[in-house]
Amino acid sequence: MSLVNNVEFLRHLPKMNAFSGLGALAPAVPTPLVETTEFGANPGDLKMFSVVPAQLARSPALVVVLHGCGQTAAGYDLGAGWSTLAAHYGFALLMPEQQAANNGNTCFNWFNPQDIARGEGEAASIRQMIAHMVAAHDIDPRRIYVTGLSAGGAMASVMLATYPDVFAGGAIVAGLPFGIAADLREALQAMMQSTTLSAPELGDFVRHASKHKGPWPKISVWHGSADRTVSPANADAIVRQWLDVHGLPLTAMSTSDVDGYPREVWWNADGETLVESYSIVDMAHGTPLGLAANDERYGVEGAFLIEAGISSSYQIAEFFGLTGQLRQPQIAPTGIPRERADTVSMTLSVPSAEPDAGAVSGGRSTVPQAARSNRVDVGRIITRALTAAGLIK
To answer: What is the number of alpha carbons within 13 Å of residue 258 lying toward its C-beta?
Structure first.
């Protein structure tokens, strides 16, 4: 890749340090995320934030969410709505955060060999955070998942490849496959043009990243067809990489439309979906937002958080198997049949002041049980606040 091409590419990139949407607003917006400062040796020098709802589901799951360049953990959580999902469905949330000292644009270093090897750098830091969460909150080790946007999506690829024994599944949004870049120049080239490597070559990157021999995590891939920051061809490469790892054919076994967008699916001999891929037609670089299948709206529009008529966070949580039941049966208010009582949502609790270093957000809610059927729509309130501030229309 020539210097001229590199400069031209960088000229068209968004100004990541001027993430004036959610990133700049996040410190002024209450967040349920709580920081933990002591969780291990932290060789990658990352920050650890988490949310654990007051009422966890039985055998609780953990979702690791990795933000994109120019974003913060709190900003991406607000935009993508993950803590609201965690409160609704009773799973724990871990949101590592990059520091500017490691990367000037606060991107996870998904292309740096010292950060993407098992037991080293940023990958090892995230693994230590997961171990801390499992021990502190009795997380079911069979129900750990990872997702991320852009550089966070590429780092999710890293985690799935280097620690396939840890994750039951992952979702990569506008990201890149594992192993295709070993420095910044190669990373930029991959973002522009993806890779020409074959499926077996891509699969070998994953197989050689650990001593694990299977079973392998299931994978959900999301990408906007009009993405000019990370070529949509990378979505195809991720799919090919994991199809090869799972020993599945390149031709989709099923195609359908979900909220107007094409979804391709591959499954194993038992009928379990192992790989799925969404192409968000005409969408630019970012996380797709929209009304979820449960008629809730998760997240708020902002930089790289795009209203597309489909809630990727909800669909990903459903793919992980996290939306089948709510945290706890609720008392059905008058006029609501008892079989619908489980669908009455709770308000999102705010963390108490001065939590322990290893503590997580939220105590038991003091809202009367009967009042919870009149749930506050947190997303709508935030949207109105952002609109009033002139940050969205």
So the answer is: 22
